[in-house]
Every structure is written in structure tokens, then in C-alpha cells.
Amino acid sequence: MTFSSDMVAELNLLLKFPNKSLMQGLKIHNDAEPEVIDAAKRLYEKGIVTLPDGGYLTDLGHDLFEHALVIKMALTHK
After folding, report:
1. How far is CA 28 from the centre of its chain?
2. Taking the chain, what is the end-to-end CA distance rounded to the nearest angstrom?
3. What is the pTM of this model?
């Protein structure tokens, strides 16, 4: 199984969320790239973020953020 382009867009968006505080979120504006808007909607439908245009990470979202960060670091490690 490989990552689909939708999955990659979701992972990239997930990694843009602030991770320093649970009180910080992300707002996807309607002039964002269509793939970013669609990724935000899919993350919302999966229960990963609180709003269809971003919002805050849910508990699941925080867990997935950590996993995505590990994957990113492993793949970029030299």
C-alpha cells in the first residue's frame, strides 16, 4: 500500500498545525489551494480536526501529528 495524493495532502496539512500548545489551531481560508481545503474537510470528517476549515487537533489529531512528525524526521534524516 502506498500513500495516495490525498493522504499526502492530509499529512502535509497535519504537520502545519501548531504543536506547542493545545490552545492553538489553524484556519484554512477559502482562497487556499483546493487540495488544502479538501484535505481539511477530510481531516474533519475523520475526526482529526474540530472544524472543516481547520480548527484544533482532536486527541486523535495530536496522536497522528506525533506519528507524522516521526515519519517526516525519519525520511529527512541524513
Report:
1. 11
2. 25
3. 0.90
Residues linked to residue 49 through DSSP beta bridges, in sequence order? 57
Length of the chain: 78
C-alpha to C-alpha distance for 65 and 24, rounded to whole angstroms: 14
Which of 65, 75, 77 shows the shortest CA–CA distance to 12? Answer: 65
| Residue 38: how many other CB atoms lie within 10 Å | 16
Q: pLDDT tens digits, the chain, 78 residues: what are they?
A: 899 999 999 999 999 999 877 788 999 999 999 999 999 999 999 999 999 999 999 999 999 999 999 999 999 977
Number of CB atoms found within 10 A of residue 5's CB:
9
Domain residue spans of the chain: 5-76
For the chain, the farthest-separated pair of C-alpha atoms sits apart, in whole angstroms, at 37
